[in-house]
Amino acid sequence: MSAETKTTCPYCGVGCGVIASIDDHGKVSVKGDPDHPSNYGRLCSKGSALAETIDLDGRLLYPEVGGERASWDDALDLVANHFSETVAAHGPDSVAFYVSGQLLTEDYYLANKLMKGFIGSANIDTNSRLCMSSSVAGHRRAFGSDTVPGTYEDIELADLVILTGSNLAWCHPVLYQRLAAAKAERPGMKVVVIDPRRTVTSDIADLHLAIRPDGDVALFTGLLARLAQSSAIDQNFIATHTEGFSDVFAEASALSFSDLLDKTGLPAMQLREFFRLFETTEKVVTCYSQGVNQSSSGTDKVNAILNCHLATGRIGRPGMGPFSLTGQPNAMGGREVGGLANMLAAHMAIENADDRDRVQRFWKSPVIAERPGLKAVDMFRAVADGRVKALWIMATNPVVSMPDADTVEAAIKACPFVVVSDVLRQTDTTRHADVLLPSIGWAEKDGTVTNSERRISRQRSFLPSPGEAKPDWWQMAEVGRRMGFTEAFSFRSPAGIFAEHAALSSFENNGSRDFDIGACAQIAAEDYETLSPFQWPQAAGAAAQTTRFFAKGGFFHADGKARFVAVKMPVSDRTSAEFPFTLNTGRIRDQWHTMTRTGKSARLSSHIAEPFAEIHPRDAIEIGVSDASLIKIESPQGKVIVRALVTERQARGSLFVPMHWNDSFAAKARIDTVVAPVTDPFSGQPASKNVAVAARPFKAS
Ligand code: SF4
């Protein structure tokens, strides 16, 4: 007889339901939850291997101060006192939190509340900045709010699915399985994949557009110009529900076809076929992910896509709409609580005085941050130049994952006071901590996460907390209380935090805000325990939850209309004689982020055992590397040495290197040491898909 617990996978933004079982001998096994609407029982390789990653090997089990075991009381007092003293001496902006899309919503909520409402700074940013912040900025420009209108069912109902900047098969595998199953059932369904690489995902494509890096703005601008002169244009929707079409159309029309060919690098026939498919298919879903977001023109790419859906009125109806796919399990939940430096809470705007006043009254907080804080790249710059003097890093490994990673590592090392909350004792980041706080891991955690389609699901614990490990929310509540904010941080359970978060989402909401889960505002502990997955919005007292946005307008700009947004053509070629290759970084199928968990599974590691650089055969011949030989990749920021994987899937002049490997698994393979800290001007999201590098054979001296 085994005990079963329904929980949620902690990896990608699909947010699959998982049933974890423990048999009489204490052995844990997992299977997909057949009742969960995200996966209906499916799991991918990573989800299926969850039980292989939850052992205690390498776990951080006790607080440490200066490398020595400490009591929780001593460690928490030190953190609280140090943050309080730093704020008193240097002001609230001298401290910062760098958090993570791995945190549960309840953890994230408290981190945001403590920093923005009680410390009084907005210096809280997240590794989700690296994941989907360009989509947030694009949504806010077009819709007046960060609203994702799509659902997974839309992908199955569409007649045309466009995947741009998304290797869905490896990065959102269960969603890919749903798409593949739908396509098998309905042979008329078409899939277009837009990606400079020919990935596994392109194997399902009826049309693969091997676009130039950052050619997406031109592609969707050219599409808009074409649509505007076709019967696909929805004049009624444009007139009733949008603003700014004529100006944006005039600019789009100025892009000549020869410019379009040049900027996208695509053959004319393929371009025409793509335009024809979009023009003649009403049910179109355009999914986009890191290939769109992780760009110096990421926000403009998002808006170029949204412009096309607004122009055709193909939004918010079954089987149609733009759909940003989040990378992390709780990137969306982080957005809901305002866990980004430029957001407030419950999708309210930090720049808006009424929103600030509303949140401050709700929190009964002594202060409220009045302006956006430091976004990830700027935050570590501020650590480097001494503006930030105390830093708390939670559930993330920036020494591996931030661009210009060596500089980030040096900054953390030099920072006067660094706290790291993590499940592992030794990561590339924890080794620089003054205070290490042991966090509970996936199997031990209780709380909620929100997936890409706005579905909130419970994560439930099924194993006891090991050693003295504690929840992240508990750590923040303790520090908040010790900083003197006793009442505001008196939480005793995640249920209480979730109820406050839900209450804030509907507090004085007159319909002008999208995020509203007020129905959960009075949730009792037992109901929280049994909470079934649901999509927001879910207003208090609503007879049925609303799952669709924008089919009939109802955008969140003050006039209720969406905005067409003018976009700029980016500089897409960053190469030079010295750095002639374009580097693209990304995920592989069986690893997650910096491998601190998936790296424990021999099964997962056997898929691809070591870091590699994909390179086109002719480029390999030109620079003198052969398959499986070592290749050195260099930029002004740093260098890595990995094995060459010679493949025609890679376009000429480009390289692909996975972002996972860290120093614990392979020396000199942290690819983010090579990535320049170039960011999108609107979102601050780093551009990790278009980095100019040199590549040559590595010869050991
Ligand atoms: Fe987990 Fe994503 Fe795989 Fe689902 S698709 S099992 S959420 S990694």
Note down, in words, how this protein is organized.
- The chain is of the alpha/beta class and 701 residues long.
- It folds into four domains: 51 residues, 2-Layer Sandwich (Phosphorylase Kinase, domain 1), CATH 3.30.200.210; 215 residues, Rossmann fold (3-Layer(aba) Sandwich); 192 residues, Dimethylsulfoxide Reductase, domain 2, CATH 3.40.228; 117 residues, Barwin-like endoglucanases.
- The chain is 32% helix and 17% strand.
- A seven-stranded mixed beta sheet has the order 5-4-16-15-14-6-7, sandwiched between helices. It has a six-stranded mixed β-barrel with strand order 21-25-22-24-23-26. It has a five-stranded parallel beta sheet with strand order 10-9-8-12-13.
- Helix 17 crosses helix 19.
- The longest helix has 19 residues.
- It starts with a strand and ends with a strand.
- The mean pLDDT is 94.
- It comes from Rhizobium leucaenae.
- Its EC number is 1.7.99.4.
- One of its GO terms (biological process) is nitrate assimilation.
- Its cofactor is Mo-bis(molybdopterin guanine dinucleotide); [4Fe-4S] cluster.
- Belongs to the prokaryotic molybdopterin-containing oxidoreductase family. NasA/NapA/NarB subfamily.
